[in-house]
Amino acid sequence: MGGVLVSAEDDETQAAEPRSMMNKMANGDRKVSGNRIEVLAAKVHFYCEKLLLYLARPCPWSSPLEKPPSCQNIMISSWCRKAWFRHVSPACGLSVFAALLVGSLSSSVSAASGDTDKASDVPMNVVVLYADDWRHDTLGVAGNPVVKTPTLDALASEGMRFTENCVTTSICGVSRACLFTGQWMSSHGCDGFKPFETPWQQTYPGILRDNGYYVGHVGKWHNGKFPGEKFDFGRSYYGRHWFKMPDGSKVHVTQRNENDALEFLGKRPKDQPFCLTVAFFATHAEDGNPQQFLPQPESMHLYQDVEIPVPSNATDESFHRLPEFVANDGNEGRNRYHWRFDTPEKYQIMMKNYYRLATEVDSTCGRILTELEEQGVLDNTLVIFTTDNGYYHAEHGLADKWYPHQESIRVPLIIRDPRMSADKHGSTNEDFTLSVDLAPTILSAVGAEVPESMQGRDMSVLYGANDAEQGDWREEFFYEHPTIRDKNFIPTSEALVRKDWKYFYWPEFDREQLFHISEDPHEENDLVNDPAHAKQLAEMRARFQELKREAASKSNG
């Protein structure tokens, strides 16, 4: 069974790379100005510097590959190759890179002298890789010392990673509605797992289909009944890690995501641009199963000999610093903490399986990207990796998401945009980008009109991929979350989020909280009753109300 990255040799599904790395870089820009060879030389210099930085880093893998691939085998896939560079010896790594550089430079220069305008005439494709319950630091490139995500690390090295990216609502169904509509919950009307109220013709899949795109969705939906008729290719399933197929076999949900995504790419009309959303169920738990996280057998060797660090605020003391309507065993966040994290042994088992699911998703992303590369369309495809919400790994004595703490609302975002200049590759951005920004970013990238109903902003201004001026980007945002079942189960929570301060409001209990997060990153020292911060509280309370009204305005105007 595929779907698990074990070694570069094991991935026999990946054919020889049709173009060298440098050919790919030379042909990657959709808009080229100036001397093409100078652009190529700048890219070569950039990647040489990046390789040296990689070789200077300590190995993030627990052990090197037992059977390292030959230099020839590294050409299988750029994604496997970059993952391998992270744990190969520096001497061999330099030799391989030299061979790649010398072997491909002449063909790259030749390609550089060709017609540079052809790529810009081709409509851009879109692939959204959308994981579940995956917080911002569940990435090797984000500094996580344990989890192995070589594909996504490589994707970040060819694009931009947004380190302060957040969701406007941290729960599966609502956040997905925000993704499709580009709207806050208060505007799209989905306050749980029902269909959103925004017309389909105002969502990014609907608009792209109306503009001649072949549109697909595979995996989790969670916004009422899946509207298969609105897609050219649609497969919806979630809720379990293992599925019994019609022939009696069992398939893992991530493998099923992979199979369906590759089927979409194989069957798509070659004369149409396409948009594919791959909505993974992993790393979501199987809530009704005592095991919670059920990875594939091939993954079980991963993380066996690793001790997962326990967060410093995963304590009863931190739990009891929460408001009393959260800090009780009737709260669902605490219930799920007991399911997953309430003993040291359970914590290790659960987190290792959680990370195994993440590595499986990473591997499937690699196979999708490899297929795009082999079809010759990767360099004309906007690739986005992000997730629906963050996740407590026992911080505050909680599990899951929902509340406005950083662990819950911060999620990864990586964008690989063919229009992005080489000097932006591997860079990070610290602006507040949001889940509602993805739809307008996608539409702007393909040249489609962004409807007035979308409240998010085109993020490409942050990496210079369009002609617009960046202007003032947001420095704060409004967060909202609905009541699920009742106020004692999952209460409504709202917040005004800034990088240095955060204001919480729990409307069902008329409770405010104030945190100076630049000094209190764990959000444990509530300053709401401190007279020294009364002015700060009053200012944020007023601004919170303004942004709350804007979120319900149903318009970006």
From TrEMBL:
InterPro entries recorded for this chain? Answer: Alkaline_phosphatase_core_sf, Sulfatase_N
The protein's superkingdom reads Bacteria
Q: Name one Pfam family in it.
A: Sulfatase
- Locate the Sulfatase N-terminal domain: which residues? 125-447
Protein's name according to its UniProt entry: Mucin-desulfating sulfatase (N-acetylglucosamine-6-sulfatase)
